[in-house]
Amino acid sequence: MLVTGYVLTAIVALGIIYIGLNYLFAPKKIAAGFGFNEVPENAETFLNVKGGRDIGAGLIPLALMIYGDAHALGWVMLTAAIWPVFDMLLILRHRGKKAIAFGVHGVTAAVMVVAALLLLLG
């Protein structure tokens, strides 16, 4: 159970770091896939900030994986699952693409909760 929790955590962490890097270096391209129907023209600065946040969000669980405290990592993953939940809710609130809201952000939150439970119970 612990190994699966660590693997899921690594996948999510590396995935969000990759997304963050894209928000820094190709913000308009990656923003189009976030789930909103349109991206404002002058949003690049905000998207760069989001990229930095995403990179930091991915580094936190990786640091805890290196530290080797599965229980602390489980709590971090459980609390951090709120980020993709809010992303999903924002997309739905602004009448964005439901498939991306549920299929990307909702599934990411669910995977994070599963990883957290595996780490906490393992």
From TrEMBL:
<keyword id="KW-0812">Transmembrane</keyword>
<keyword id="KW-0472">Membrane</keyword>
<feature type="transmembrane region" description="Helical">
    <location>
        <begin position="99"/>
        <end position="121"/>
    </location>
</feature>
<protein>
    <submittedName>
        <fullName>DUF4267 domain-containing protein</fullName>
    </submittedName>
</protein>
<dbReference type="InterPro" id="IPR025363">
    <property type="entry name" value="DUF4267"/>
</dbReference>
<feature type="transmembrane region" description="Helical">
    <location>
        <begin position="73"/>
        <end position="92"/>
    </location>
</feature>
<dbReference type="Pfam" id="PF14087">
    <property type="entry name" value="DUF4267"/>
</dbReference>
<keyword id="KW-1133">Transmembrane helix</keyword>
<feature type="transmembrane region" description="Helical">
    <location>
        <begin position="6"/>
        <end position="26"/>
    </location>
</feature>
